[in-house]
């Protein structure tokens, strides 16, 4: 007799992951498909939308064929906010990725001048930055007017897959809230007047909450393993689905996601806003968020692993564990791909200062981890100044597989972090939300209890280094911007436009 299971899938920046989860929350099986995004000139970071559905079919088919299971429900999520546009059912171009894609800088400047950044912040809980979906939709509308004249739809990975599964054109409210200024956070519905103003001819998807059923599967001849009639939820953006995977949705709770980039989500019952952060609707009724994100984190460790020739992370972690806090005077700014919050500076660049001949791999690796920890502290301070009340932190993601990284973050921030038993990722949160929607489970802790708590250690050196970290950006920002331009002119880096001062947040604002 087949075992009942829930299927969760998440489309990430570097791979798509799917899991089968049993009624008790146990992971029955999982699969991953790696992929790459395209990084082109002018800050374009994009991906072929068809990959999202193709990988769903591959992973779903593999898991169902390999396991004697009956799928009771499906949940999907993906990186975001992405903007993929389709007309007459076909993509018109590769999708623009989230805040790491800087293509719409001219549109951001245009809209900011027309609408006013302070007015946008007041009305939509976020200013316009590279994270906002609205300017990217305008970017497509300008370049593909014929497609919009025929009628266009825009998608994120979750909604594109749901369209194929159910025939429903939908989007969850959280994802919609990152499409500033197309979504009204007061009414929690689309701002149809603004949508008409930005991209006439766009059909807006039906909205719902992430953990609500939006439709049921159709018969799909190319995917015989998929039964018709399986409930599917609205889903969400990956960081928010991963937040659900560890139940970090209570007001006053902060969620840290250690991934290719690092994400922070502060939960509140009230709308929160800050010029350098993203105010959003939560995944559930009654929840609001103030969110921040680093442009790199795990990307830094992967970069160093690749250039150092050390293929196993365990070797680098062991070397870093032998180094004292503060990396013997080595300090790093982690802005290797620009930076998102709280400085919002796409032309920022990585800085490593204090190097001596005595420093080795362990020092450099530890300094990279410490750099992300300083960035987390910076973000938390800004969130609290904006009114967020943070009484607890829950962490998840690949970085919690070893205690070293979260321990450094706790030491730098002075705050404990809860780690749950399973850190499978957003796909597990998708499975939980569909199980919850069907009434199978009503408490995440039943599925995924807290396994341990990382307690902060008294580390005075970090307080002093944090002040140096904050000062170092101010002291070197002009040089960073100049070097970004040099790299562009010499062809040793993706071509970037001139710095966009309308979206760069000063230290005083942050």
TrEMBL record:
What sequence ranges are listed for the domain Carbohydrate kinase FGGY C-terminal?
A: 256-433
Q: Does the keyword Protein biosynthesis apply?
A: no
* GO MF annotation terms: kinase activity; phosphotransferase activity, alcohol group as acceptor
Polar residues compositional bias, start-end: 499-510
Record domain Carbohydrate kinase FGGY N-terminal: where? 7-239
What GO terms describe the biological role, i.e. biological process, of this protein? D-xylose metabolic process
Q: Where is this region: Disordered?
A: 488-510
Q: Which UniProt keywords apply?
A: Carbohydrate metabolism, Kinase, Transferase, Xylose metabolism
Has UniProt tagged this entry with the keyword Oxidoreductase? no
Q: Which SUPFAM superfamilies match?
A: Actin-like ATPase domain
Q: Name the domain of life.
A: Bacteria
Instruction: Give the protein name, as stated in the record.
Output: Sugar kinase
Q: Which organism is it from?
A: Rothia koreensis
């Amino acid at each position: 007799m087949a075992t009942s299971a829930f299927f969760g899938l998440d489309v990430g920046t570097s791979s798509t992951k799917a899991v089968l989860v049993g009624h008790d929350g146990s992971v029955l099986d999982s699969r991953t498909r790696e992929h790459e995004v395209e990084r082109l000139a002018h800050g374009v970071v994009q991906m072929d939308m068809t990959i999202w559905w193709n990988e769903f079919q591959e992973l779903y088919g593999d898991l169902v064929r390999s396991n004697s299971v009956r799928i009771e429900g499906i949940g999907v999520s993906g990186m975001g906010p992405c903007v993929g546009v389709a007309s007459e059912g076909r993509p018109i171009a590769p999708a623009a990725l989230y805040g790491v894609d800087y293509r719409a800088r001219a549109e951001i400047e245009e809209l900011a001048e027309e609408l006013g950044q302070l007015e946008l912040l007041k009305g939509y809980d976020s200013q316009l930055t590279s994270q906002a979906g609205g300017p990217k939709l305008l970017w497509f509308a300008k370049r593909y007017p014929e497609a919009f004249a025929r009628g266009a739809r825009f998608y994120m990975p979750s909604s594109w897959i749901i369209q194929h599964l159910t025939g429903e054109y939908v989007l969850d409210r959280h994802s919609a809230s990152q499409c500033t200024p197309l979504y009204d956070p007061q009414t929690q519905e689309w701002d149809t007047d603004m949508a008409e103003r930005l991209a006439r001819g766009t059909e807006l998807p039906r909205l719902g909450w992430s953990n609500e059923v939006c439709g049921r599967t159709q018969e799909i001849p190319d995917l015989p393993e998929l039964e018709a009639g399986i409930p599917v939820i609205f889903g969400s953006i990956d960081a928010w689905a991963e937040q659900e995977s560890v139940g970090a949705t209570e007001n006053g709770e902060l969620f840290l996601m250690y991934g290719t980039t690092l994400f922070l989500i502060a939960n509140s019952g009230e709308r929160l806003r800050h010029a350098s952060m993203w105010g959003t609707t939560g995944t559930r009724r009654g929840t609001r968020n103030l969110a921040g994100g680093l442009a790199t984190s795990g990307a830094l460790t992967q970069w160093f692993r690749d250039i150092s020739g050390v293929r196993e992370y365990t070797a680098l972690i062991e070397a870093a564990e032998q180094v004292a806090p503060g990396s013997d005077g080595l300090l790093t700014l982690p802005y290797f791909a620009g930076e998102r919050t709280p400085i919002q500076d796409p032309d920022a660049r990585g800085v490593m200062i204090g190097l001596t001949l005595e420093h080795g791999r362990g020092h450099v690796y530890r300094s990279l981890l410490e750099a992300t920890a300083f960035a987390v502290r910076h973000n938390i301070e800004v969130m609290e100044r904006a009114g967020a009340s943070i009484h607890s932190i829950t962490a998840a993601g690949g970085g919690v597989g070893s205690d070293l990284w979260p321990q450094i973050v706790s030491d730098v921030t002075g705050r404990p972090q809860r780690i749950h038993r399973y850190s499978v990722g957003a796909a597990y949160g998708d499975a939980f939300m569909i199980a919850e929607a069907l009434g199978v489970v009503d408490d995440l802790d039943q599925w995924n209890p807290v396994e341990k708590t990382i307690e902060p250690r008294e580390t005075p050196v970090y307080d002093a280094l944090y002040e140096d970290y904050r000062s170092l950006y101010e002291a070197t920002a002009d040089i960073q911007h100049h070097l970004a331009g040099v790299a562009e002119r010499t062809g040793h880096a993706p071509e970037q436009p001139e710095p966009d001062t309308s979206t760069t947040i000063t230290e005083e604002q942050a």
